[in-house]
Every structure is written in structure tokens, then in C-alpha cells.
Amino acid sequence: MTLLLSALTDQDTAAKLLQAGELVAVPTETVYGLAADASNPQAVAKIFVAKGRPANHPLIVHIGDLAQLSSWARDIPAQALLLAKAFWPGPLTLLLAKADNVSPVVTGGKDSIGIRMPAHPVLLALLQQTGLAVAAPSANPYKKLSPTSALQVMAGLDGRIAAVLDGGDCSVGLESTIVDLTSAQPQVLRAGPISAAELETVLGVPVSAPKSHNVAVPGNVKAHYQPGKPLKIFNKAELLSALQQSTDAVICLYQSAEFTDLALPHSRQLPQDKAGYARLLYRSLFEADTLPGSQIYLEQPPQTPEWDDVNDRLRRACS
Ligand code: TXA
Ligand code: MG
């Protein structure tokens, strides 16, 4: 049985479970994470079992205090401190050389480590209360959608983890940007809420953009972030004609106002702005899985750089 814990009254229970080496799903501003004490390899190993995740996929370590950085990374470049100052707490993961004492269970055997300070008051309070750093991937079964609410975590992992700490709906809704600082030029390995252009502004040097499904990020596989139902993506004209031809019941997720006039059952309009859209995307796909209708039709969002992270996740969700 998995406990559903309230952030208001049960923070101590969550702290005790983590300290005892149990798995607790925790809220972050991006998506819920499946947390274990990062200094306890037996606890971290349970994450891979609960998710069904291959052991060579490294985990991100979440810290609550900048002073913890040097316990997890070595040879920390000045660029890391500049980015931490500008974007932490926040949705940016720094890839650095790992400190010698970090267990290979955390890093999937790699010599680098991903670290971030999450911007969620509930998780920050928990990290600060316990003094722990937690290793946490997204709290979904392997290849499924990342959860943005406690109930979505429960839907995927109930019975496989000790508890979920409910901190409400995630405000960002998409996974963090991952930037690799271990080689000469900073490189974004996973597009996310913080763009390469924003990183360049702070660093004053070029930052290379991600290649689609970068093999330097184990687990950055092509088919990922998938809803239970087949997802098809169309531009506006294609979607209008697909809806006219479709005899099947479909769930339609769209941005253009034209689709509202069609009064389709089980359809939903997504926000025009990137941040609003990202916040609701996974939630809407989760919801689509629970509605009648055998397929999800989605209107392709804008293809501009601002929408890179959304388009990256959508490509994987439909592949
Ligand atoms: O927003 C987020 O980043 C969320 C929240 C919970 O913090 N976490 C998250 O973790 O998305 P996960 O494990 O689902 O995705 C992290 C990705 C994985 O594809 C992993 O392989 C990659 O980051 N990664 C982590 N450490 C790495 C390393 N040392 N080298 C290369 N890739 C790494
Ligand atoms: Mg994930």
C-alpha cells in the first residue's frame, strides 16, 4: 500500500521514510520525482525496480542548499556557479564531473552527475529539514508520461513505493533543461523550460542546442513520455480534414479557436502561450487516457525555438 501524504501535515512522515531508505514521490515545479536518499545505494536501487527502468540510466540528484554541490560534483567550473546563481532553485539540471564517493548506482556507472535545486517549497523544506540530497527520476513507470499531480503518481506506482507527498499540481509541467558542462562548450542535452538562448545570455558564450534523442543521455530514447492511447499530431488543415473523415471517437487537443465551433465531445483547448501549454500538456494527455475515444488527435503547436521542449516531448509521445 502506498501512503498519500499531505504536504501540510505529513512532512515528518515523508522525512522519516526517506531517512529509512524508502521511496517517496515528491512534488517539484517540473514534474513529480521518485525520491530516494542519494547517499544510500540500496535505497537508490529500489527506484529502478519500482519504475522498471534500466540500471544504466543515470538519476538527477536534487539538493536543497548550494553548499551540497561539492559533495556530489568535483572540478566544478565557474560556469556552473553562474548558472546556479541565475536559475536555481529552478528547472535546470547541470551535468558535472561526479565526486569520487558518489555511488555508481546513482550515475548509472557514468563519470558525470546531473544535479539541480528544485523550485518547489514542499520539496525544498523536506530537503532542508533532513539535510538529504535525493536522487529522483520522474515518478512514472518507464516510458510512460511524467506525472504532474499526486494522483497521477498513484495511478502509475501505487503499491510499488512507500508514499506520495502531495504538493499540488506542478507549475511548470515539463522536465528540466539538462546542460552538459563537462566538455569545452556547454551543450543542452535535453530541451526544457530554460532555453539555450537564456543560458547563453548568462554565460556569454555559445551553447549548443540538443540533437533529437541524444545518445549522450541514456534513457533519452525515441519512444518515451507516452500516453496509453495512440497519439497523432496534425497541423490545423490536416486536423480539420481528419476530424471530418474520422468515424472513430477521438479525443481532440487543439489551440485554434476554429475547433471550439465544432463542439467535439471530449476535446480540450490548450493555452496559446508556451508556459500555459506546457503546464497542461501532460495533464491533458493523462486525462485523455481516461476519456472514451480510442485515439488522441493533437493540433501541432508552433514550431519556433520557444516551443522546442514541447515539440521534443510530443515527438516522443507519438513515436
Ligand atoms: O525535471 C526533471 O528533470 C525531473 C524532476 C523530477 O527533477 N526529473 C527527470 O528525471 O526528468 P528523469 O530521470 O526522468 O530524466 C533525467 C534524464 C534521463 O534521461 C537521464 O538519463 C539523464 O537525465 N541524465 C541524468 N544524469 C545523467 C548523466 N550523468 N549523464 C547523462 N544523462 C544523464
Ligand atoms: Mg523521466
Annotation keywords:
single chain; 319 residues; alpha/beta; DHBP synthase; Rossmann fold; 2 domains; 10-stranded mixed β-sheet; 33% helix; 18% strand; globular; binds threonylcarbamoyladenylate; binds magnesium ion
Walk me through this protein's architecture.
By secondary structure, the chain is α/β, with parallel strands linked by helices. It has two domains: 3-203, DHBP synthase (Alpha-Beta Complex), CATH 3.90.870.10; 231-317, Rossmann fold, CATH 3.40.50. The chain has twelve helices and 14 strands. The chain has helices at 11-19, 41-51, 69-72, 78-87, 104-107, 121-130, 150-157, 196-203, 236-245, 258-261, 274-290, 308-317; strands spanning 3-6, 24-26, 33-37, 60-62, 92-97, 112-116, 134-135, 163-166, 177-180, 187-190, 231-234, 250-254, 268-269, 295-299. The chain has a ten-stranded mixed beta sheet with strand order 1-8-2-3-7-4-6-5-9-10, sandwiched between helices. Strands 11-14-12-13 form a four-stranded parallel beta sheet. Helix 1 (11-19) crosses helix 6. The mean pLDDT is 94. Residues 137-138, 146 line the site of magnesium ion. It comes from Rheinheimera tilapiae. InterPro entries: DHBP_synth_RibB-like_a/b_dom, Sua5-like_dom, Sua5/YwlC_C, Sua5_C, T(6)A37_SUA5, TC-AMP_synthase_SUA5. Required for the formation of a threonylcarbamoyl group on adenosine at position 37 (t(6)A37) in tRNAs that read codons beginning with adenine. Belongs to the SUA5 family.
